[in-house]
Every structure is written in structure tokens, then in C-alpha cells.
Design brief:
mainly alpha; signal; 242 residues; two-stranded antiparallel ribbon; 8 helices; 8% strand; elongated; three-stranded antiparallel beta sheet; 2 domains
Length: 242
């Protein structure tokens, strides 16, 4: 029975795997064959946008990556200082009276964060941490430069997403043109329908701007924020030293 059970399991696994593999599209003569629409969308986006970035020389420079990493370091340090001040405040309160259950909960969270930060400081030269920071910087900077170029080429409205400013209408125009050029070919009507539905901007989104003033991509958000963040960090350090 055991060998039969193993054979049945292997057959079932193979059948499920075979059913899940779908040829969704062809992008720049590369077949998009994967197990889900989400992964297919990701492959189409990555292939065409990376190709666009290479053609238009939009890959991040070392200076741009350094600027973003400086922004990330400042952001992390500000959060750390704020939590250190909050923890110090709770410790003062605890010295004069018993903390409430909510205050104790906050203290526990802050102590755990401090311990985590200490581990990160000790591992700051770790190759994996460096790679993570480089990958994140490269992704954000390249995404910004692509959106900036698309906006300047096709115009249209913009939207603020979690990953930053997005040239929503221009991005849709870009993919429509890529399809007309033959660089994007769909092999499933159902998949194509969801692709365009996912890509079409929601003009009712609270952050959508149909006609933004000037060029909203003139200055990257991290460059614009660095000076204010440096001032905020100085203020927090002064409070901590009092």
C-alpha cells in the first residue's frame, strides 16, 4: 500500500502542477508561462519596464543610490530616536508610579525594538543587509526615474501610492503602445481583461490628480525630504541630551 500511496501522491502532484502552468502572454519574444495571473502581471511589468529603462538610460547611478540610502538611514534613525524618547518617558513614569497595562505594553514593544536595533547595528556590515539596502534603493530610484520619463513622454494624471508617486495614465499609455508594437501579446482573453482592468487608473482615487501643477517628478521625494529630516533628527538629539 505504501508504494501505491507514494505513486498516487506523485501523480496527483504532477497533475496539479501541469494544470497550474499557463501560457499567459509573450513579452519581447519571451514566453510568460507561470502558475498565477499575479505572477504573470509581475513578469510583464518587469520585462517591459526594465527594457524601457535600459533603452532610455534610466538605470540608477551610484550617486542616486547613495542619496536614497542616506534618506533611508535618516528615516530609520528618526524612528529610533522617537522610540528612545518614548521609552525614556515611560521609564520616568514607572519610577514615580505603576504603569498601566497599556503603558506596560508600549514599554515591552519599545524594549523589543531596541533589542532588534542593537542586533542590526551589530550586523551592519553583514553582506545580506548590504544587499537588501542596495536592492531597495535600486528598486525605488529606478521606479521613480521610469515614472518620471513616462510622465514627461505621455503626460496624463498621477496618483500617490504606497511606493511613491506614480504616472498612472502615462503607464497605461505605455503598455497600450507596447501591445501595438507587438512587444506584448496576450494568449488569454480573460487574463488580458484583468490586466487592463488592473492597469487602468482609478480616477476616483482620493490621491489622483488629473492635471498636476508643473512636473511632479522634478525632485525625488527622498531628496526633497532629507533637509527637513536632518533638522528633525537634530531636534530629537537635543531633546535626548536634555
Amino acid at each position: 500500500m505504501r508504494p501505491l500511496a507514494v505513486l498516487f501522491f506523485l501523480f496527483l502532484s504532477f497533475s496539479i502542477f501541469a494544470q497550474e502552468q499557463v501560457h499567459y502572454a509573450t513579452v519581447l519574444e519571451q514566453q510568460v508561462v507561470t502558475t498565477s495571473e499575479k505572477e504573470a502581471n509581475k513578469q510583464i511589468f518587469g520585462t517591459l519596464l526594465n527594457h524601457y529603462a535600459e533603452q532610455n538610460k534610466l538605470l540608477p547611478s551610484e550617486e542616486e543610490l547613495s542619496q536614497f540610502k542616506a534618506f533611508g538611514k535618516l528615516s530609520k534613525e528618526i524612528h529610533r530616536k522617537k522610540d528612545e524618547l518614548k521609552l525614556a518617558e515611560l521609564m520616568k513614569i514607572e519610577a514615580t508610579r505603576s504603569l498601566s497595562s497599556e503603558e506596560l505594553k508600549q514599554k515591552k514593544i519599545l524594549v523589543e525594538m531596541q533589542q532588534q536595533w542593537q542586533k542590526e547595528v551589530e550586523a551592519k556590515d553583514d553582506i545580506h543587509m548590504d544587499k537588501f539596502m542596495n536592492d531597495m534603493a535600486n528598486g525605488f530610484v529606478k521606479n521613480w526615474k521610469i515614472n518620471k520619463s513616462l510622465y514627461e513622454t505621455y503626460g496624463g494624471g498621477i496618483v500617490f501610492q504606497q511606493a511613491g508617486l506614480e504616472s498612472a495614465d502615462a503607464r497605461l499609455a505605455f503598455f497600450e503602445i507596447e501591445k501595438k508594437k507587438g512587444n506584448l501579446e496576450f494568449h488569454s482573453e480573460e487574463f488580458e481583461s484583468q490586466f487592463w482592468a488592473m492597469l487602468t487608473p482609478n480616477h476616483n482615487h482620493f490621491s489622483y490628480q488629473e492635471k498636476p501643477e508643473g512636473n511632479p517628478f522634478d525632485v525625488p521625494f527622498w531628496i526633497d525630504a532629507i533637509e527637513k529630516m536632518e533638522e528633525e533628527l537634530e531636534t530629537l538629539v537635543s531633546k535626548q541630551e536634555q
